[in-house]
Specification:
The protein is α+β, with helices and mostly antiparallel strands. It has one domain (2-95). The chain is built from 4 helices and 4 strands; from the N terminus they run H-H-E-H-H-E-E-E. It has helices at residues 2-13, 17-23, 34-44, 49-60, and strands spanning 30-31, 63-72, 75-83, 89-95. Helix 1 (2-13) crosses helix 4 (49-60). The longest helix is centred in the N-terminal third of the chain and has 12 residues, at 2-13.
């Protein structure tokens, strides 16, 4: 868990301005309804969204708001929303299977 927290923290700190440039190139996420999310977590043994959201919250020194399972083409990605102390909402994207930062997304 400590390794995941340090990777999430490095991910959050790295190049936030690159996120807006990448957003135009990124395919849209299709976030799934809760019933389908539960089924996929069980069937594919995906990472626990609550634990990943808590780890991201600790790493970012932010309050957890929401975690959603989304599909990007064939990949499943958690979109984690956090509220920073400065009032800014930050979204990070984690690979749902591994819990690692998703390569196609940066914090925004």
């Amino acid at each position: 868990m400590r390794r995941i927290v340090s990777k999430i923290l490095a991910f959050i700190v790295a190049a936030p301005q690159a996120a807006s440039a990448m957003a135009a190139d990124r395919p849209a996420l299709q976030c799934l309804p809760i019933a389908e999310t539960r089924q996929l977590i069980s069937d594919r043994r995906l990472g626990d969204p609550f634990a990943l959201m808590q780890a991201a919250s600790v790493a970012a020194h932010a309050e957890p708001i929401n975690a959603r399972l989304c599909r990007e083409q064939e990949e499943l990605v958690y979109e984690i929303s956090l509220l920073r102390r400065d009032g800014r909402v930050v979204r990070i994207y984690l690979d749902a299977a591994t819990g690692q930062p998703h390569a196609g997304h940066k914090e925004h």
